[in-house]
Amino acid sequence: MKRVLLILSVVLSGCVAGWQEELRTGDLIFVAQAEGRDAGESSMDGAIAAATGDIIHVALVEVDGGGSVWVIDATSRRGVARRSLETFLRDFTYDDGTSPVYTVKRMDDPGLADGWIERAKSFLGQPYDQYFLPDNGAMYCSELVRESFLDEDGDYLFGESPMNFRNADGEFPAYWTELFARLGTDVPQGVPGTNPQEMSASPLLHTVSVSLP
Q1: pLDDT at residue 187, as a whole number
Q2: Helices vs strands, H then E, count in the chain
Q3: Whose CA is closest to 62, among 83, 92, 87?
Q4: Which of 51, 81, 82, 148 could crosslink 120 through cysteines, CB 3.0-4.6 Å?
């Protein structure tokens, strides 16, 4: 009986230990608004959520040879940048000290992950793409991921679809109207592009159980 209990304990311990995974190079961190939090449509986060869903950002993970975790992403504050995981999480912490909801997803076949990260690094220093247009020397978050994740033939792994900036009532949130008025251009409604919400639902990805600090 003791032997059976010992074996069962080892099996259960293995299951528990395997339940929490470590971040790996090529993982994607999706950031969603905390449940019940309404940033308002006059803010960027609120405008994104109103148009496409609660997932408002996506970032790439790099784990270096020493085990340090880095994040590469495109934000309005930093442009395309590489920063520590700790800095990334701090940047997304709300003023009241609470955090958004983080979901880590991994490609079903991550064999080209090192290449995806190296390609992402080639865009470091580019400004944030406020215009949300392709091939203009600037990047928004999901555009960076799409441009970085190529297959062995150099083809995109993530597709595009017509971009939507309208809320559920069919109106443009105040943030978008004010932004594009300031930029002196029309809202790029319908222009081919990507967004974090749609990207998170890609059949190429699966969710991994990672607890971020």
Answers
A1: 98
A2: 7, 8
A3: 83
A4: 148
Any idea of the CA torsion for 57, 89, 26, 150, to the nearest 10 degrees? 30
* Rg value, the chain, Cα: 19
**Smallest Cα–Cα separation from 126: which of 179, 186, 76?**
76
Domain residue extents for the chain? 24-208
**pLDDT on residue 12:** 38
Mean pLDDT of 65-90: 97
Q: Which of 61, 81, 57 is nearest to 70 (CA)?
A: 61
Please give the distance of CA 100 from its chain centroid, rounded to a whole number.
12
Cα 62 from Cα 71, distance rounded (Å): 6
Residues 46-75 have pLDDT tens digits of 999 999 999 999 999 999 999 999 999 999
* HEC readout, 10-61: HHHHHHHHHHCCCCCCCCEEEEECCCCCCCCCCCHHHHHHHHHCCEEEEEEE
Domain 24-208: CATH superfamily, name plus number: endopeptidase domain like (from Nostoc punctiforme) (3.90.1720.10)
d(CA 132, CA 80): 14
Q: How far apart, in Å, are the Cα atoms of 49 and each of 39, 98, 209? A: 9, 18, 24
* pLDDT exceeds 80 at position 14: no
Q: Identify residue 41 by its one-letter amino acid code.
A: E
